[in-house]
């Protein structure tokens, strides 16, 4: 900032007042913590089964829980940021080519270009399977529809999703890893030998 202010075409400061200062020492960043495959699948199973809920579920809650499970898998196996997953549309998904095209992200509730601009994510087999199950629902599967939707086909609420995720982690007896942190294992997952996951498809109409 001060170097900018020293330029003759800005504020022409005669010298940089912080040139002689030392950099403040910063502690090393903490090691990234993320789930292993078995833990991520346990989380997804707990969510899909509604173990984080109290009492009987209705059909809409059951569909919500099964969708949450697939979203957790997609985040874990692809490395998508939550904001990128929430605005993912079916036009961005190519199951035959096993790729996702990230065209947009979500920041402060506004859709915009994602960090790093547009880029493709390769899909590990469990992510392909999770997205294939999502594509089998009865509605909201046109090119412009969101992959993960609420009961009327709108974008999911991130705050409500985080609350359900926290409860599902507790139900699965897992340590605390942030929802954003699910993506941190993706690089090693994609490079690893093929793995598979399984889940029932919710066929209840959401409209």
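^ structure tokens above, recovered residues below v
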């Amino acid at each position: 900032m001060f170097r900018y202010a020293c330029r003759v075409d800005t504020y022409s400061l005669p010298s940089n007042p912080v040139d002689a200062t030392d950099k403040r020492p910063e502690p090393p960043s903490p090691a990234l913590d993320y789930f292993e495959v078995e833990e991520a699948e346990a989380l997804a199973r707990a969510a899909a089964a509604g173990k984080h809920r109290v009492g009987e579920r209705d059909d809409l809650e059951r569909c919500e829980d099964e969708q949450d499970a697939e979203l957790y898998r997609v985040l874990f196996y692809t490395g998508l940021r939550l904001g990128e997953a929430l605005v993912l549309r079916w036009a961005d998904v190519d199951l035959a080519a096993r790729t996702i095209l990230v065209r947009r992200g979500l920041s402060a509730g506004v859709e915009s270009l994602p960090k790093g601009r547009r880029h493709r994510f390769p899909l590990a087999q469990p992510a392909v399977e999770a997205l294939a199950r999502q594509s089998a629902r009865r509605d909201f599967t046109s090119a412009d529809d969101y992959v993960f939707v609420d009961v009327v086909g709108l974008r999911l609420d991130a705050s409500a999703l985080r609350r359900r995720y926290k409860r599902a982690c507790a139900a699965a007896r897992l340590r605390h890893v942030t929802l954003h942190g699910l993506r941190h294992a993706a690089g090693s997952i994609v490079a690893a030998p093929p793995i598979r996951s399984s889940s029932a498809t919710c066929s209840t109409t959401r409209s």
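The CA atoms of residues 126 and 196 lie 5 Å apart.
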